[in-house]
Amino acid sequence: MRTMYETIYEMAKPYLNTRYNDVHVELSYEFTKRLLKHYPEADEDIVLPAILLHDVGWKMVPEDEQAGAFGPEVKKNDVQRFHEIEGAKMAGQILNELNYPGSKIHEIMDIIDGHDTRLEALSLNDKIVKDADKLWRFTTAGVNLDSFRFGIERISYINYLENRIKEWFFTLAAQDMARETLAITRSQLS
Predict the structure, then answer these.
(1) One-character DSSP codes across 64-128
(2) Strand, coil or helix: what is 50?
(3) Are the CB atoms for 184 and 140 separated by under 8 Å?
């Protein structure tokens, strides 16, 4: 029998086949589960659906408009913001279709609506989603993909990531995971 999270992911999949979001979401989901072990007071029924659905809004952005709306140098803030707004709406529709609890849907939508552009976190749940969303970048898959699509040498991109750890992550556990993951990536790519 499929879990609710597996069902949510299956419903999200058609919207994740752009920007390599399928790979990104799977890795981010695994980091989310690891972070939840460090923060048992967080609500997994909010955090896990939020990470599974956070980037569905990119499907509403034509692929030729996506470049420059994410990465080290965001030039299209309006496009980045658009994917958050659309993603929150789409997440709400998916979760309502599954009869997910309404109070949880609202918080999930609030987290998605600002997961990239909002500099402050709304709650511990939001911190975990924001952190897991970035942690995938530190994996070998993330470094290989992003260094290619942003036209940055891998070692330069690894150094860039290393210098962003304290700036980007809200939780200490995520900072530790970023360092550990990047060390593994560095050794695999050298």
Answers:
(1) HHHTTSSSSS---HHHHHHHHHHHHHHHHHHHHHTT--HHHHHHHHHHHTTTTT-SS-SSHHHHH
(2) helix
(3) yes
| Two tokens, residue 63 | 């692929």
Residue whose token pair is 């709304």: 122
Provide the token pair at 99.
């009869």
Q: Look up residue 151 and give its two tokens.
A: 């036209």
Per-residue pLDDT tens digits of the chain, which is 190 residues long:
679 999 999 999 999 998 889 999 999 999 999 999 999 999 999 999 999 999 999 999 988 888 877 888 877 788 899 999 999 999 999 999 999 999 999 999 999 999 999 999 999 999 999 999 999 999 999 999 999 999 999 999 999 999 999 999 999 999 999 999 999 999 999 8
Helix, strand or coil, per DSSP, at residue 80: helix
Structural domains of the chain, ranges and CATH numbers in brackets: 4-189 (1.10.3210.10)
The first and second tokens of residue 61, run together, are 């952005």
